[in-house]
Every structure is written in structure tokens, then in C-alpha cells.
Write a structure and sequence with these properties.
The complex is a heterodimer of chains A (about 160) and B (about 130). By secondary structure, chain A is mainly α. Chain A is built from five helices and no strands. The chains are: A mainly alpha (about 160), B mainly alpha (about 130). Chains A and B meet through helix 3, helix 4 and helix 5 of A and helix 2 and helix 3 of B.
Chain lengths: ~160, ~130
């Protein structure tokens, strides 16, 4: 993947977001689904979307679920909302990504605490958390580089 | 040990710390965005500049490569010229040798008439050699 930019010759449409950022958007969508299920499980006794979290303290289920939902919705909003500029979209996406990092890490830690032998489950959690973290770093670096180019252009003008 | 470390309280504290950290970083991002806003158009402009700079660098590299090739070409050309001079010198030497051979042939034919002259073959060889060079 040399450069997952928008390679289009028309105004950017919804499909182009999917094609340019499939990983982020799919993981965010899954986070919303998973978070919703976790949040529901806090209110519905006997309903548990992840058997690894059977031993999770009930006080943690709802906050982790809400973190997932907030992070997922924020990430999607930053892509689909056309009324905000790029820099603002990035700040929202970065905040949402940090929420996703926190929620997936919390999930992984909760699984490790409850059943450390479920390596795939907590491994998945940590993998997604690290993917979100690195996307957060990438956006930060891109913004920094763009700002320095803008500064150069301003000084050069 | 692991159980106590990953207790519900600790995980809750970690989540709260992460949320606080995320909000602090978000505020910093927002402040930067307010001071130096990035919009679609400025981003595209900056990207174009980046591409233009990259193209310029590539053009400079290509220019340097051309200069290097040119220097190599000049070096080869001077070597070819030197070889040409050498070839001309060799030709002169061969022609002189041929003249000597012809004089010798003439002398032999004069002093020892009826002698079979193998030097005629040498003459032919020399002519061939001259053609080749």
C-alpha cells in the first residue's frame, strides 16, 4: 500500500471513503456493533456477546461499551461529515481513535484478567488497539507535515 | 499478581486516565487547528507543493545522472581518438614495412633471377592487415 490516497477524478463521494480507508471504517463499524452489544449486556442479565468477558465486572461493561460506540461513531463522523474542514475532521478522528485504543485495550486487559489462555481474543483486541494507535500517529504526522509546508509557503510568498 | 494488577478498579482507572489523556490531546489538536487551520484546499495546495518539490528533486537527480553519463562519454571518445591515432601510426609502420619488403623483392628478383619468391605472400598478408586496420 504505497499511498492510500483518494485516486479519483470526480468530487469525493461516500464510496471513495470506503476505498481509501477500508480498515479504519470497517474496524470503527465493528466497534460500534460490539460496543452496542456490550452496553446492552449491562442491562440484560444473561446476555453476553463475548464469553471471554463473562467474569468482567458489571461496572466496567457499560463504560467500555460506550467507549467503543463513541470511538466508532466519531471515526465515521469524521469521514462522512462534509460540513467540517479537513483539520477538524482529523482532530475528531484522532480523539475517536484514542477512545478506540482505550476501549480495545480495556477489552484485551479484561480478557487477560478473566481468562489469559484466550490468546486469540486478547490478541485481537491488542492488535486493533495498536492499529488505531498507529493511525492516530499517522494523522498527527500528516497534519504536522502539512502545517510546516503551509508555513513554508506563507514565508516564501 | 496479574489478577490484582488487572482488577476492575485498575482497569477503570486506566480507562479514566485514557479518556482524560485523549481529551487533553484533542484540545491540543483543536488549538493547533485554530492557529493553523488545515482545509481541503490548503491540504491539496501543500500536497501539490510537495509533489512539485519531489519532481524538482527527481529532475535534479536526472540532470546529475546525465552530466555523469556525458563525462563518461567524453572519456570514451578521447580513448577512441587515442586508438585512432595509434591505428594511423600502425598503418604508417606497416606501409613502411611493405615498402621494405617490395624493395627486398625487387633486389632478390634482380640479383637472383628465377628464385621462387615467398615474399609475395607476405605482401598479400600485409595488404590484408592494412585493410583490417
Amino acid at each position: 500500500m504505497p499511498d492510500r490516497g483518494y485516486l479519483v477524478d470526480h468530487p469525493i463521494a461516500g464510496r471513495d471513503h470506503w476505498l481509501a480507508h477500508p480498515f479504519e471504517l470497517i474496524l470503527a463499524a465493528w466497534s460500534i456493533v460490539f460496543g452496542t452489544l456490550l452496553a446492552i449486556s449491562a442491562f440484560v442479565p444473561g446476555f453476553n456477546p463475548s464469553p471471554s468477558l463473562e467474569n468482567l465486572h458489571p461496572s466496567l461493561t457499560l463504560p467500555i461499551g460506550l467507549l467503543y460506540v463513541a470511538g466508532g461513531i466519531g471515526t465515521h463522523w469524521s469521514y462522512w461529515c462534509t460540513s467540517i474542514d479537513l483539520g477538524t475532521a482529523w482532530t475528531v478522528e484522532r480523539l475517536s481513535l484514542l477512545l478506540l485504543v482505550a476501549s480495545w485495550t480495556a477489552y484485551a486487559l479484561a480478557v487477560i484478567a478473566a481468562s489469559p489462555d484466550r490468546i486469540v481474543q486478547w490478541g485481537n483486541g491488542l492488535t486493533i488497539a495498536s492499529a488505531c494507535f498507529w493511525r492516530w500517529v499517522t494523522i498527527g504526522r500528516r497534519a504536522k507535515s502539512l502545517r510546516s509546508i503551509q508555513r513554508e509557503m506563507r514565508e516564501g510568498a | 499478581m496479574l489478577d490484582s494488577l488487572l482488577s476492575a478498579g485498575n482497569i477503570t482507572a486506566a480507562i479514566i486516565a485514557a479518556i482524560v489523556g485523549a481529551i487533553v490531546l484533542w484540545r491540543r489538536d483543536r488549538r493547533e487547528q485554530r492557529t493553523e487551520p488545515i482545509t481541503e484546499s490548503t491540504a491539496i495546495l501543500a500536497q501539490q507543493k510537495q509533489l512539485a518539490d519531489m519532481a524538482l528533486e527527481m529532475a535534479e537527480a536526472a540532470h546529475k545522472e546525465t552530466e555523469r553519463n556525458r563525462a563518461d562519454l567524453l572519456k570514451v571518445r578521447s580513448e577512441v581518438d587515442a586508438l585512432k591515432v595509434e591505428r594511423a601510426r600502425d598503418k604508417t609502420v606497416i606501409r613502411r614495412l611493405l615498402d621494405h619488403i617490395r624493395i627486398l623483392e625487387h633486389l632478390i628478383a634482380e640479383r637472383l633471377p628465377g628464385t621462387d619468391l615467398p615474399t609475395l605472400d607476405a605482401d598479400i598478408h600485409v595488404e590484408e592487415l592494412l585493410r583490417e586496420t
